[in-house]
Amino acid sequence: MRKLIVFTIALAAILCSFSAGAQQPQRRISPNDTLKSVRVLPDGTTVFSIYAPKARTVSLTGDMMPYGQPVVPVERNGVWSFSIPNVKPGSYRYHFVVDGVQVYDPKSPTTTQNTALAVVEPNGKEFFSYNPNIPHGALAVRSYWSKTLGRTRTMRVWTPAGYEAGKAKLPVLYLIHGGGDTDVAWPTVGCAGDILDNLLAEGKMVPMIVVMPDGSCDISSFEKDLMNDIIPFIETNYRVLADKDHRAVSGLSMGGIETLEVIFQNPDKFGYVWCLSGGFNPGVDIQKEAERLNVRANAAIINKNCKEFVMTQGGRTDITYVSGERANKLFDEVGLKYEYQEVGEGHTWYTWKINLYDEAQRLFKKK
């Protein structure tokens, strides 16, 4: 009898649990379930959206925002949308600000390391587009111990398709990002891997290794880190041609300042130099900087060793245009041989992607 009572109670409990489960309300479908956070409309307008039904204020910031023109959102059913007309083809970093809190797009598959990437490609055939029909290189995240800075740091290393199975030693380009960025920038918003893959598949560039280091430290320390830690790491762990004629350095904006620091401290170590939207640090006296870096004496050494020394700007709207002019004037005074280019549109990743596209086609080719 006792066993029967226990069984009856247990059975009742099970039935009650099933009944309670059956009565639980189903989750309501919300606009977020089908939301596409970045859309390109037929007229070329790009729409950024986020679902924030309880937010009081939402704003959008990013590389594609029109300068000096705030974009007012439209809110409907908890979805806040921002429409930006005439966004040029490219890759753009962005984030939302919800009630004063910076929020990275939760719907974006490219959200990584505090950045979300919107790729706007009307036809998918831009020079920086991903092409599924060609071989692709490998992009590795490499950690190394920096004796210079006394800590573990990272760099991104692109190797061309087929490198792992090959035996050939390759030249190396050291490619530096700008201020406020890290080694994540060139492979993501800079589309470096896709640009290089496309050029190599078209036979327009020499196979090379591209090292994208973290330049986010003071300029002098970066130069020492590059020369004493990064380059030795690469030349120890990769099949590379370890001489000046097969070594290039290039950087944009702050990375351009670091590029000049590197070459004037090591005038016989690189065969190719590309300073993109750069010059000398605008906060210093250029004559004192020239003395510190021994620019006049080093100019002759650089002329002897460099096959290419290129200074670029994104036109007069580039915020480093004046710094570039000051540097070029100094180079003229000391007899440094260099080439000057103006391409792109201002101080933007659109400009620097063009720079990489042009640069990669010229490096390490016999003249």
| Helix proportion range | 25-40%
Q: Stretches where pLDDT falls below 50 for ≥5 residues?
A: 1-22
* Number of beta-strand segments: 16
Which percent band covers the strand fraction?
15-25%
Mean pLDDT: 89
Per CATH, the superfamily of the largest domain is Alpha/Beta hydrolase fold, catalytic domain
Detailed description of the structure:
The chain has 367 residues and is of the alpha/beta class. The protein has 2 domains: 31-120, Immunoglobulins (Immunoglobulin-like), CATH 2.60.40; 138-362, Alpha/Beta hydrolase fold, catalytic domain (Rossmann fold, 3-Layer(aba) Sandwich), CATH 3.40.50.1820. Helices cover 29% and strands 24% of the residues. The protein is built from 8 helices and 16 strands. The strands form 3 sheets. An 8-stranded mixed beta sheet has the order 9-10-12-11-13-14-15-16, sandwiched between helices. Helix 2 (192-201) runs parallel beside helix 8 and helix 3 crosses helix 4 (254-265). The chain is globular. Mean pLDDT is 89; it is low at 1-22.
SSE layout and pairing:
Elements (H helix, E strand, L loop, with lengths): L1 H21 L15 E3 L5 E6 L6 E5 L11 E3 L2 E6 L5 E9 L2 E3 L12 E5 L17 E9 L4 E9 L12 E5 L15 H10 L7 E5 L5 H19 L9 E6 L1 H12 L6 E5 L9 H7 L2 H11 L2 E6 L7 H14 L4 E4 L6 H14 L5
Parallel strand pairs: 11-12, 11-13, 13-14, 14-15, 15-16
Antiparallel strand pairs: 1-2, 2-5, 3-6, 4-5, 6-7, 6-8, 9-10, 10-12
Helix pairs in contact: 2-8, 3-4
